[in-house]
Amino acid sequence: MTDRQRNGFILLLVMGLVVASLIVIVGIPGATKAKKTVLGLDLKGGVQLVYQGQPSAQTPVVTSDALQRAVDIMRSRVDQLGVAEPQIQTTGKDLITVGLPNVTDTARAEREVGTTAQLAFYDWEANALTPEGKIVASQLQAQDPNALTISQGAGGNNAPGEPGSGSTGLYQAVQLAAKQQPWSSSANSRTGPQYWMFGAPGSAACAAAARAQGTAPVAGQRCLLSGPDDNLTDLHSGLPAGVSPAEGQLLTVPRGWTVLQAIPASFSHSLPVGSASAQFFVLKDNIALRGNDITNPQQSTDPNSGQPNVTFAFSSKGKSAFQNVTAEIARRGSLVSGLGQSYNQHFAVALDNQLITVPYIDYKQYPDGINGDNGADISGSFTITSAQDLANELRLGALPINLKLICSGTPGTTSCHSPRVR
C-alpha cells in the first residue's frame, strides 16, 4: 500500500467514525427516539437553591463534617420528593447549593429541603406569656382574661395556639419577647440572642420591602425588613435593596425566649413570617422534649376525625420525659380548676418557629400524666402530602446546623449577589 493509499484509507476511516457518531447523536430517521435523560440542572423549570450554614444549639461551630451531614439529610429528603438526578454539594466554607430538576413547586422544595426540622414540646401554660409579660400559668387562678384566652382559647373555632386565641402580630410579639430577661439552659433552642429589624409605618423602607416581596404595604403597620437572624451581619445583609440599617428599628430577643407562629389554617399554605396576617405567641424557651426523643414517625389517619396525622413512638428517655411533663400539666389542671370550671392544661408541639398543635391533657382521665408506651400523634390541618412531609422530616432527623436560604430561582436566572428578602 502506497503512502497516498494509506492516507486515503485513514481519511475514510476517520470520516466513517464521524458519520457513525452523527448517527448516534442525531438518530436515524424513522428510528425510535431514546427518552431524554435530564442531568442536574440541564432543564428548563428546575429549581436552584443556595443555603448558608449557620450555627445551631447542637452545633455551635459550622464544620465541614456538619455541612456534609446536612447534605446527606437534604439528599435523603430530596429522595422522598421523588426528584431524579439532584445536585447537592457544599461550596466554600459554609454554603450548600441544591439543584432540583423537574421541580415546579418551589415553595414545597424550599420547605422540605432546607427546613431545620427541630421538633420541640413545651408545657404551654407554664411557658406562654400574656401581652403584659406574665406567665399564663401564674395568672389562671386570678382569672386573668388574657391568660384564660391563651390557655383555653377564644371559644368557637379558636382553640389554644390558633390565631385569635390571645395571639398578636409579629411586631408586638417580638417587642414583648425583647423586653424579657435572658436565661440560659440546655433546654433552650438557641445559644444566643435573635435579631429582628422592622420598618416604620408608611416608610420608604417598608415600601421597598413590599416591592421586593411582591406585596403592598399595610397602612399604619410596621413591616418586617429583615430577620430573624442570629447575628447582625446577616440581619443587615438581609435588608431590601437600597435600605440601610439606620432606616429600621432593631429588636433583640434574648436567649431563653422564643417567638412562635400560630397554628396555620393549612400546613400546605402557611403564611410567611412577614405577612401582615400572620399571628404569633411568645414562650419561655424551655423545651421538655425534642425530636430526638421520638421514634418511627409515620403518616397515618386520625381514627376519630378521619383526617391525616403523624404518629410516633418515644425513645426510653422520651417516654419518661413525656410522662413527667404530662403529669405536671395534669396536676396544674386539677389545681386551677374548681367551682364548676374545668381548665384542662396543654402542651405545645412546634417545628422550628411554627406551632403545629396544642393538645390538652384531661387531668381527670390522666391525673398522673400519660404513659408514653403507646406513643402519641400530631393532629392538625394536614393534607396527606403535608403529613407525609412532616413524617419524613422527623424520620430523617433534624439538620445539625441552621440553614439560611440566601437565593433561589430557576437555573440560569438565580443570582446570589443580593440576599433573598424573606
Nutshell version of this structure?
By secondary structure, this protein is of the alpha+beta class. The protein has 2 domains: 47-116 and 399-409, 2-Layer Sandwich (Alpha-Beta Plaits), CATH 3.30.70.3400; 119-192 and 254-396, Gyrase A, domain 2 (2-Layer Sandwich), CATH 3.30.1360.200. 30% of the residues lie in helices and 22% in strands.
What does this structure look like?
This protein has 422 residues and is α+β, with helices and mostly antiparallel strands. Helix content is 30%, strand content 22%. The longest helix is centred in the N-terminal third of the chain and has 24 residues, at 3-26. It is globular and about 60 Å long. It starts with a helix and ends in a 13-residue tail after the last strand. Mean pLDDT is 84; it is low at 1-43 and 414-422.
* Separate helix tally: 11
Largest sheet, described in full? 5 strands, antiparallel
End-to-end distance, in Å? Answer: 75 Å
The number of distinct structural domains comes to: 2
Indicate the CATH class of the largest domain: Alpha Beta
Uncertain runs are 1-43, 414-422
**Residues in helices, as a percent range:** 25-40%
Instruction: Bin the strand percentage.
Output: 15-25%
Cα-atom radius of gyration: 27 Å
The CATH topology assignment of the largest domain is Gyrase A, domain 2
Number of strands: 17
H/E series: HEHEEHEHHHHEHEHEEEEEEHEEEEHE
Please state the overall shape, judged from the principal axes of the Cα atoms: globular
Structural class: alpha+beta
CATH architecture name of the largest domain: 2-Layer Sandwich
What's the mean pLDDT score? Answer: 84
